[in-house]
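Supplementary Note 2. Why include the ligand at all?

Several targets in our set were suspected to adopt different conformations when bound, so apo predictions alone were not considered sufficient. For every target with a known small-molecule partner we therefore ran a joint prediction. The input for 5'-deoxyadenosine is given below.
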Amino acid sequence: MTVRTPKLFVRSYGCQMNVYDAERMADALAPDGYASTDRAEDADLIVLNTCHIREKAAEKVYSELGRIRKMGEELGRKPLVAVAGCVAQAEGAEIMKRAPVVDLVVGPQSYQRLPELVRQARAGEKPVDTEFAVEEKFSSLATPVRPLATRGVTAFVTVQEGCDKFCSFCVVPYTRGAEASRSVAQIVAETERLAAQGVREVTLLGQNVDAYHGEGPDGRDWTLARLLLRLAEIEGLARLRYTTSHPRDFGDDLIAAHRDCDKLMPYLHLPVQSGSDRILKAMNRRHTAADYLRLIERIRHARPDLALSGDFIVGFPGERTEDFEATMRIVDEAEYASAFTFKYSPRPGTPAAERDGQVSEAAKAERLQRLQARITERQIAFQRSLVGARFDVLVERAGRHPGQMAGRSPYLSPVQIEGSTAAVGEVVSVEVTGSGPNSLFAAPAGGAREDVRMLAEATA
Ligand code: 5AD
Ligand code: SF4
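The joint prediction is reproduced in token form.
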């Protein structure tokens, strides 16, 4: 008798933490024989790893469930269907009422219990597990058990989860719960394992990552900066990044790390959300536009070539034209290299959803378009400013055409290197020969990695 290997298909939506969690779910199910597939049609278990941050993201889940139901009918075989992630956390058993195709619902804090939940679902029960047990999740999900060889040279490592900031528009404090940090020892062990498998770049993840305060080997709480400096000692690891930060939690030692730690890349995602103090207050951000700009100035003083990215929400309740104009202004004042823009989406259970002064869809659309156009302009100008610069690229894969290798700049922009003989995983010095809106084109260059800092200082 041959036993068929059960196949797992995970589709992740939303943030990078879901990408990380998807790997951990696959790890949790590997001892039960589950192998990953990238074809939903072949799967015995389909997991939708959902996002609840904006309405559109949540609605996608229900349309996908509709497609899965149809696919099952066409195949004449029903795979088990699990809904995980933040929609699972927020809606729980409601999901099964609305979409009976769903066999199990599991929140982000319960993935270590997936094997048991899958067994229950197989037995015809319809388990729903949305309990908050972050500590348990961290301790039992710490060890990736699947071979890492196929995971590439970059990886995510979750260092903290949840958020205590309670921005008035945001569901994260409700879906991911209170802020909790993993211990330094756990993170070091996981990162060492990744480095030993050939991972060269690690991005530390957390919803509010600069609030990190995990227990260090000395029994004290360590800051994110201290953690980064410790991880920079790991052999084989060439690059460190972290995301996403809140301006209020950005410590002086983190600024210093941007100056002192070569492995920490000069790229920072630091959302401001709005340029208007009145709206920032209503958003409960607890800082002003000027506070934000001052902070950016200090970070740039430490690391002059820093590329800044951010998030913006347009059409927050009560946002008037002059508030929006302040947002347009801060895009220039902060000199973003790139940014993400969103229309405000009222999320059930958040304070802002109940407020008067909801902005019309038409005004939101118009503001979004204007803001996006300005950010695209800035992004193109930033990319262009790098032409002629030299910097290191971490080679991640072969390029689209023969003789091309593809990787990323220190600033996270994709780079196509022409005529490169470099291997995947190598860090090579390049000279930028051309720029598009999203990627850079480059040729191999010898030596000098300091050029780009000088260039940034010269153009500052
Ligand atoms: N509506 C629109 N955008 C939102 N974000 C978070 N909540 C909402 C919402 N209710 C955006 C913020 C945040 C990013 C991850 O998503 O800009 O930084
Ligand atoms: Fe949401 Fe970020 Fe605000 Fe936390 S800091 S509530 S995750 S927007």
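Residues 53-54, 169-170, 271, 273, 311, 313, 342, 344-345, 347 surround 5'-deoxyadenosine (ligand 1) (CB under 6 Å). Residues 447-460 have pLDDT under 50 and may be disordered. Comparable summaries for the other entries are listed in the accompanying table.
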